[in-house]
Amino acid sequence: MLKDVIKDAKTRMDTVVEDARRKLSTVRTGRASVNILDNISVEYYGTPTPLTQVANVSAPEAQLLTVQPWDPSILNLIEKTIRSSDLGLNPSNDGRVIRIPIPPLNQERRKQLAKMVRDIAEDHRTAVRNIRRDSNEHLKKLQKDKKITEDDEKNGLEETQKLTDSHIEKINEVAKNKEHEIMTV
Protein backbone atom coordinates (compact mmCIF):
# COMPACT_ATOMS: atom_id res chain seq x y z
CA MET A 1 0.00 0.00 0.00
CA LEU A 2 2.79 2.39 0.92
CA LYS A 3 4.55 1.70 -2.38
CA ASP A 4 1.31 2.34 -4.29
CA VAL A 5 0.89 5.79 -2.71
CA ILE A 6 4.51 6.72 -3.47
CA LYS A 7 4.30 5.33 -7.02
CA ASP A 8 1.09 7.26 -7.69
CA ALA A 9 2.63 10.48 -6.35
CA LYS A 10 5.75 9.98 -8.49
CA THR A 11 3.70 9.35 -11.63
CA ARG A 12 1.58 12.45 -11.04
CA MET A 13 4.66 14.60 -10.29
CA ASP A 14 6.40 13.33 -13.45
CA THR A 15 3.31 14.40 -15.42
CA VAL A 16 3.49 17.89 -13.90
CA VAL A 17 7.18 18.23 -14.80
CA GLU A 18 6.47 17.15 -18.40
CA ASP A 19 3.60 19.63 -18.61
CA ALA A 20 5.95 22.37 -17.36
CA ARG A 21 8.49 21.44 -20.06
CA ARG A 22 5.80 21.49 -22.75
CA LYS A 23 4.35 24.83 -21.64
CA LEU A 24 7.77 26.46 -21.33
CA SER A 25 8.76 25.24 -24.80
CA THR A 26 5.91 27.30 -26.24
CA VAL A 27 7.24 30.55 -24.74
CA ARG A 28 8.81 32.62 -27.47
CA THR A 29 12.52 33.36 -27.48
CA GLY A 30 14.49 35.42 -29.98
CA ARG A 31 15.08 32.33 -32.14
CA ALA A 32 12.65 30.51 -34.40
CA SER A 33 11.25 27.36 -32.82
CA VAL A 34 8.35 25.32 -34.18
CA ASN A 35 7.19 24.78 -30.58
CA ILE A 36 6.02 28.38 -30.20
CA LEU A 37 3.08 27.54 -32.50
CA ASP A 38 1.99 24.49 -30.45
CA ASN A 39 -0.85 26.39 -28.74
CA ILE A 40 -2.28 27.70 -32.02
CA SER A 41 -5.55 26.06 -33.10
CA VAL A 42 -7.34 26.73 -36.39
CA GLU A 43 -11.08 26.38 -37.04
CA TYR A 44 -10.99 23.58 -39.61
CA TYR A 45 -14.41 22.42 -40.79
CA GLY A 46 -15.96 23.88 -37.64
CA THR A 47 -13.56 22.13 -35.25
CA PRO A 48 -10.64 23.79 -33.45
CA THR A 49 -7.67 21.80 -34.75
CA PRO A 50 -4.00 22.18 -33.68
CA LEU A 51 -1.95 23.90 -36.36
CA THR A 52 0.47 20.96 -36.52
CA GLN A 53 -2.40 18.70 -37.67
CA VAL A 54 -3.37 20.86 -40.66
CA ALA A 55 0.03 22.12 -41.80
CA ASN A 56 3.73 21.41 -41.92
CA VAL A 57 5.61 23.80 -39.61
CA SER A 58 9.36 24.24 -40.01
CA ALA A 59 12.19 26.60 -39.09
CA PRO A 60 14.43 26.91 -42.16
CA GLU A 61 16.39 29.81 -40.66
CA ALA A 62 17.17 31.04 -37.14
CA GLN A 63 14.77 33.99 -37.50
CA LEU A 64 12.05 32.47 -39.72
CA LEU A 65 9.24 29.94 -39.41
CA THR A 66 7.30 28.57 -42.38
CA VAL A 67 3.83 27.04 -42.28
CA GLN A 68 2.66 25.07 -45.31
CA PRO A 69 -0.97 23.94 -44.96
CA TRP A 70 -1.98 20.66 -46.56
CA ASP A 71 -5.25 22.30 -47.62
CA PRO A 72 -4.40 25.63 -49.32
CA SER A 73 -7.96 26.91 -48.76
CA ILE A 74 -7.19 27.57 -45.07
CA LEU A 75 -4.04 29.60 -45.75
CA ASN A 76 -5.68 32.95 -44.92
CA LEU A 77 -7.39 31.49 -41.84
CA ILE A 78 -4.07 30.22 -40.46
CA GLU A 79 -2.43 33.58 -41.15
CA LYS A 80 -5.26 35.44 -39.36
CA THR A 81 -5.14 33.06 -36.37
CA ILE A 82 -1.37 33.48 -35.92
CA ARG A 83 -1.66 37.26 -36.26
CA SER A 84 -4.42 37.44 -33.62
CA SER A 85 -2.55 35.20 -31.13
CA ASP A 86 -0.67 36.70 -28.19
CA LEU A 87 2.71 35.78 -29.70
CA GLY A 88 3.20 39.18 -31.34
CA LEU A 89 4.09 37.69 -34.74
CA ASN A 90 3.34 39.17 -38.16
CA PRO A 91 2.94 36.36 -40.74
CA SER A 92 2.72 36.86 -44.50
CA ASN A 93 1.77 34.41 -47.24
CA ASP A 94 2.64 33.99 -50.90
CA GLY A 95 -0.40 31.88 -51.78
CA ARG A 96 1.23 28.56 -50.84
CA VAL A 97 3.37 29.10 -47.74
CA ILE A 98 3.06 31.36 -44.70
CA ARG A 99 6.34 32.95 -43.66
CA ILE A 100 6.64 34.14 -40.07
CA PRO A 101 9.68 36.30 -39.35
CA ILE A 102 10.71 36.11 -35.69
CA PRO A 103 11.63 39.64 -34.64
CA PRO A 104 14.37 40.09 -32.07
CA LEU A 105 13.01 40.71 -28.58
CA ASN A 106 13.46 44.10 -26.95
CA GLN A 107 14.50 44.26 -23.28
CA GLU A 108 10.98 45.04 -22.02
CA ARG A 109 9.47 42.07 -23.89
CA ARG A 110 12.27 39.81 -22.58
CA LYS A 111 11.38 40.82 -19.02
CA GLN A 112 7.67 40.11 -19.66
CA LEU A 113 8.50 36.67 -21.05
CA ALA A 114 10.85 35.91 -18.15
CA LYS A 115 8.04 36.83 -15.73
CA MET A 116 5.70 34.55 -17.67
CA VAL A 117 8.25 31.71 -17.34
CA ARG A 118 8.46 32.28 -13.57
CA ASP A 119 4.64 32.25 -13.31
CA ILE A 120 4.37 28.98 -15.28
CA ALA A 121 7.07 27.42 -13.09
CA GLU A 122 5.35 28.57 -9.89
CA ASP A 123 2.02 27.10 -11.03
CA HIS A 124 3.72 23.76 -11.62
CA ARG A 125 5.61 23.87 -8.31
CA THR A 126 2.25 24.44 -6.60
CA ALA A 127 0.80 21.45 -8.45
CA VAL A 128 3.68 19.27 -7.18
CA ARG A 129 3.09 20.51 -3.61
CA ASN A 130 -0.62 19.71 -3.94
CA ILE A 131 0.26 16.16 -5.00
CA ARG A 132 2.53 15.92 -1.93
CA ARG A 133 -0.33 17.10 0.29
CA ASP A 134 -2.72 14.52 -1.21
CA SER A 135 -0.15 11.76 -0.78
CA ASN A 136 0.58 12.77 2.84
CA GLU A 137 -3.14 12.84 3.66
CA HIS A 138 -3.54 9.38 2.14
CA LEU A 139 -0.61 8.05 4.18
CA LYS A 140 -2.01 9.54 7.40
CA LYS A 141 -5.41 8.01 6.66
CA LEU A 142 -3.82 4.60 6.07
CA GLN A 143 -1.98 4.86 9.40
CA LYS A 144 -5.14 6.02 11.20
CA ASP A 145 -7.04 3.02 9.78
CA LYS A 146 -4.17 0.79 11.03
CA LYS A 147 -3.34 -0.40 7.51
CA ILE A 148 0.31 0.72 7.87
CA THR A 149 2.57 1.20 10.90
CA GLU A 150 3.72 4.57 12.25
CA ASP A 151 7.22 3.83 10.97
CA ASP A 152 5.84 3.11 7.49
CA GLU A 153 3.91 6.37 7.61
CA LYS A 154 7.04 8.28 8.67
CA ASN A 155 9.11 6.63 5.92
CA GLY A 156 6.34 7.35 3.39
CA LEU A 157 6.19 11.02 4.38
CA GLU A 158 9.98 11.30 4.03
CA GLU A 159 9.91 9.56 0.64
CA THR A 160 7.12 11.86 -0.55
CA GLN A 161 9.14 14.90 0.55
CA LYS A 162 12.22 13.64 -1.33
CA LEU A 163 10.09 13.15 -4.46
CA THR A 164 8.64 16.64 -4.06
CA ASP A 165 12.08 18.22 -3.66
CA SER A 166 13.51 16.43 -6.71
CA HIS A 167 10.54 17.32 -8.94
CA ILE A 168 10.54 20.96 -7.85
CA GLU A 169 14.27 21.05 -8.60
CA LYS A 170 13.56 19.71 -12.12
CA ILE A 171 10.95 22.43 -12.68
CA ASN A 172 13.36 25.08 -11.39
CA GLU A 173 16.08 23.82 -13.73
CA VAL A 174 13.82 23.88 -16.81
CA ALA A 175 12.55 27.37 -15.90
CA LYS A 176 16.07 28.68 -15.25
CA ASN A 177 17.27 27.39 -18.63
CA LYS A 178 14.29 28.94 -20.43
CA GLU A 179 14.75 32.26 -18.64
CA HIS A 180 18.45 32.24 -19.56
CA GLU A 181 17.53 31.50 -23.19
CA ILE A 182 15.08 34.45 -23.21
CA MET A 183 17.46 36.93 -21.57
CA THR A 184 20.41 36.04 -23.82
CA VAL A 185 20.69 38.63 -26.55
Description:
The chain is an alpha+beta fold and 185 residues long. It has 2 domains: 2-25 and 106-183, Ribosome-recycling factor (Topoisomerase I, Chain A, domain 4, Orthogonal Bundle); 34-101, Gyrase A, domain 2 (2-Layer Sandwich). Helices cover 57% and strands 15% of the residues. It has helices spanning 2-25, 75-84, 107-144, 150-183; strands at residues 41-44, 47-50, 55-61, 64-69, 92-93, 98-101. It is elongated. The strands form 2 sheets. Strands 3-4-6-5 form a 4-stranded antiparallel beta sheet, covered by helices on one side. It is built from 4 helices and 6 strands; from the N terminus they run H-E-E-E-E-H-E-E-H-H. It starts with a helix and ends with a helix.
Question: What's the architecture of the largest domain in CATH terms?
Answer: Orthogonal Bundle
| Strand neighbour order, sheet with most strands | 3-4-6-5
Q: Indicate the structural class.
A: alpha+beta
CATH fold label of the largest domain: Topoisomerase I, Chain A, domain 4
Q: Which value, in Å, is the CA radius of gyration?
A: 22 Å
Strand content: 5-15%
Give the termini separation.
Answer: 51 Å
Task: Let me know the largest β-sheet.
Answer: 4 strands, antiparallel
Superfamily (CATH H level) name of the largest domain: Ribosome-recycling factor
Instruction: Give the overall shape.
Output: elongated
The low-confidence runs, each spanning 5 or more residues with pLDDT under 50, are none
In DSSP terms (H or I, runs of 4 or more residues), the helix count works out at 4
CATH class assignment of the largest domain: Mainly Alpha
**Order of SSEs:** HEEEEHEEHH
